[in-house]
Amino acid sequence: RGGATPAAAEAADRAWRLRHLRAGAPAPALVARDAEGNELRLEDLRGRRVVVHVWTADASGPASPLRPRRDDLEAWARWAERAADAAGVLVGVALGVDAPTFRRLRAEHGVDWTTVLVPPGAREVPWRLRRAPAVFAVDEAGVLRLALRGADAAGVPPSLDAWLSGRAADQGEVRRGR
Asked: Do 80 and 42 form a contact (C-beta atoms < 8 A)?
């Protein structure tokens, strides 16, 4: 990736995502600092059901299916509460969101789940995800059970509640979007 063109780097990232971010595959390592500066390690959450929600916010533009609306953020806040009640956990990865924007979103919309901030222009991005939205469900053993990208991951997918409660098996994968 060192001297690769942007198109070649994107192709390599996409190939990696298709290989590693699919239902039934072991979840790749995720080690990053959360918004409070604490180290987050996905492997430390083994034994719990984890949802990784990749999102972005553009404070200057209108809401779109690929940017969370106020209703979406508040729906994720309610889902995070349900997850905590069921010994699950929601981990956010906020692409292109800096600390001041995150603090505003936290105050305005109740974004109080663990969130990794990926500031604008960051070179290293967890799981090579450079576009939002995306939702990944990781079971207690660290295996990806649901992988949604693009418009299919907008909002809180209804299948997450069934998966969290153990009423659903593998949900499969949707590869629309990037």
From this structure: no
